[in-house]
Design a protein that fits this description.
This protein is of the alpha+beta class.
């Protein structure tokens, strides 16, 4: 710390008493905290917030209802809304826990998760029935506010209830209310409820004599409690109240997001995901905290924290994400039951894995990638979103639409219900994952087409329509005509009232090594793993034609700790992972030797045999043709099995 005299005339936002010790030493090391007392006891800490330096995102979402899908994702979204979000979610039972208490730790998360995805679905299609459901449950929740302003499953005398996850539950109350307020209805009573919830938290949590945030929660390093950072910062941006930024400073720059290790500095120092957080690198919760760190960077402009988030992204991408776009396993941390980082990308074929790829992990990875896409404009983040969306996300969804699997596997039993965690509401078993899965679906129209300062950006190629804005302020309509990912050809019809020069960006996936691109028949260059930027004067009726490289790629398995790990191969066609399905083929797990041509496989699309199959292919092997389908379509809810990494028969 620099000389104390430099701060003597500094205006401080608040004065906090604190006992000298480990926390005092942390505070003294940080330049935003000023020691005003000395000796055995560090008497006071003055919080000196840095000047707000808002950072603009490279990409911004389109307004509500500006993107509408046709087919594909539209069917999946409707399936979830009708049969889950509007169908069977027991909103009233979730609210009741805030009146009478929970019967299992952290069950108070359920209301916020359900409302968050429903509000994002409403943002997409403005369904009046869904709005009515949301208005009713929000009004119901607001009747549970306690005298201290909290909405909590723990009574006031027990707050903050660390072992039961009170802060984690408050995080989801805030997120649910925030999504409702921002996407459905800007009700001042809802905003006040958020302020009261946050202020109650600030009154209870902080430097001593308050309770430190890293002493709250159920995990060994209490990482989940610091994930309240994201909604606190969102509330700061809604209200401008300095106290919420001060509290965010405390979480990030004093406590470091976890008890013991400073997870933000670990990420900045490029530690692998499984090394971050000490002996408890919980995947879902870690990314939730780092979503908050991205929001913190947006407000403060501190490049240190931006780099920490980017390092975590790059290391998760290379070391943890599997073939189907999700990660986490139990090979190194069995106490985390398949929900922790464990070098999953390398170990994904290991028979030592019993549990892997929690849906909450995949959905949060999708959201974290979206955060960084908006922040940096990096197209690789959308490659990751697309990979998870078409494979891991849809592969976890029940064919009936009423929920998602808790965990997923690549070989063997693909899906399960809430066998590891959850609670029964009548006959309905509800887990964190079948509440979080719909949020992944609701995010797809949010990222599909976006705006930039120079014009619209097309991220996803599901057929549909989008209305963006030109730099000159005109509404430009993009009609995406495709049967992607079944076929490779994509057409984008451009409609703009008056001719104007601006740029339309199209994501060229990293896997598309041979791409064709033209505007009105004129060929243009397209490079894999970049955005193709088309800067020209656009007029009504202009047509973009894009042809992506949908050749079927043969992927060799990584060689992890399993000695036979390199004896597996997988097939990927465009963004789609193929698999063998026991429902279709009793020899689904038998060794095969694929016939390749120039390094690719002639996987021929055929009419699906089963009614719920999206894509089915005829694949040549040395023993004749086998039938394979997209990973997402394999139905293991009936007890059947899957084989995604296929054992190789060496000729």
């Amino acid at each position: 710390m620099n000389s104390i005299t430099q701060y003597k005339n500094t205006k401080c936002s608040k004065i906090l008493p604190v006992t000298y010790g480990a926390l005092g030493k942390k505070l003294l090391r940080h330049h935003r905290f000023l020691a005003l007392g000395f000796g055995i006891t560090l008497t006071y800490i003055a919080v000196v917030p840095s000047a707000v330096s808002a950072q603009e995102d490279q990409l911004t979402p389109l307004p509500p209802a500006a993107v509408r899908f046709e087919g594909g994702f539209a069917v999946d979204i409707n399936n979830s809304v009708v049969h889950w979000n509007k169908g069977v979610i027991p909103y009233a039972d979730f609210v009741e826990m805030f009146r009478t208490g929970r019967k299992q730790f952290a069950l108070g998360e359920m209301w916020g998760k359900a409302v968050r995805s429903s509000a994002m679905f409403y943002r997409y299609h403005q369904d009046p029935e869904l709005k009515a459901v949301l208005k009713k449950t929000v009004a119901d929740l607001l009747t549970t506010r306690q005298a201290n302003g909290s909405i909590s499953c723990s009574k006031t005398s027990e707050q903050p209830d660390g072992p039961k996850g009170d802060l984690w539950e408050r995080k989801y109350v805030l997120l649910g209310l925030e999504e409702y307020y921002e996407q459905v209805e800007k009700d001042p009573e809802v905003l006040q409820a958020m302020i009261d919830e946050a202020d109650c938290t600030l009154a209870q949590i902080g430097p001593p004599p308050k309770i430190r945030i890293v002493d709250q929660g159920w995990s060994p390093n209490r990482i989940e409690s610091s994930s309240i950072l994201e909604p606190i910062l969102r509330l700061y941006k809604l209200t401008g109240h300095q106290r919420y930024l001060d509290f965010s400073h405390y979480i990030v720059e004093v406590e470091g997001g976890a008890k013991g290790p400073n997870i933000f500095e670990d990420a900045f120092n490029n530690k692998t995901p499984e090394q971050i957080g000490g002996s408890y690198p919980k995947a879902y919760e870690m990314m939730s905290v780092f979503e908050g760190l991205v929001e913190y960077y947006r407000v403060t402009g501190n490049e240190h924290w931006k780099q920490a988030a980017l390092n975590l992204y790059q290391n998760i991408q290379t070391k943890e994400i599997t073939l189907v776009g999700n990660g986490g396993c139990d090979i190194k941390h069995p106490n985390m039951l398949g929900e922790g980082w464990g070098n999953t990308a390398l170990e994904q074929t290991s028979p030592k894995i019993n549990r892997m790829m929690e849906t909450c992990v995949g959905m949060t990875w999708l959201k974290f990638c979206s955060q960084l896409n908006r922040l940096t404009g990096d197209p690789s983040t959308v490659d990751e979103i697309e990979r998870y969306a078409y494979n891991g996300l849809l592969g976890a969804m029940k064919p009936s639409g009423d929920g998602f699997s808790y965990l997923n596997r690549l070989n063997g039993s693909k899906t399960n219900n809430a066998q590891s965690w959850g609670w029964k509401f009548g006959t309905l078993q509800v887990s964190c994952c079948n509440l979080n899965g719909p949020m992944g679906l609701a995010y797809l129209p949010f990222v599909a087409v976006m705006n930039s300062k120079i014009g619209p950006v097309v991220n996803l190629y599901n057929a549909g329509n989008a209305t963006a804005q030109t730099p000159g302020g005109q509404a430009v309509q993009l009609e995406i005509k495709s049967s992607y990912p079944t076929q490779s050809d994509i057409k984008v019809n451009v409609s703009v009232p008056k001719s104007e020069r601006f740029t339309i960006k199209l994501r060229i996936p990293a896997w598309s090594t041979k791409t064709t691109l033209s505007v009105n028949g004129r060929a243009l260059k397209a490079v894999a793993g970049t955005y193709a930027s088309i800067d020209r004067t656009w007029s009504h009726g202009d047509k973009i034609e894009l042809g992506l490289d949908m050749r079927c790629r043969l992927i060799d398995a990584p060689h992890g700790s399993d000695p036979a790990g390199d004896h597996f191969q997988a097939l990927v066609r465009g963004p789609i992972v193929l698999a063998r399905d026991e429902n279709l083929d009793s020899d689904y797990n038998k060794p095969v030797s694929f016939i390749t041509k120039d390094g690719y496989i002639e996987a021929t699309p055929i009419v699906p045999t089963l009614p719920t199959t999206r894509l089915q292919f005829r694949v040549p092997t040395s023993d004749g043709f086998i039938q394979m389908m997209d990973y997402a379509s394999v139905n293991s809810w009936n007890g059947k099995h899957i084989c995604t990494w296929l054992p190789t028969k060496h000729e």
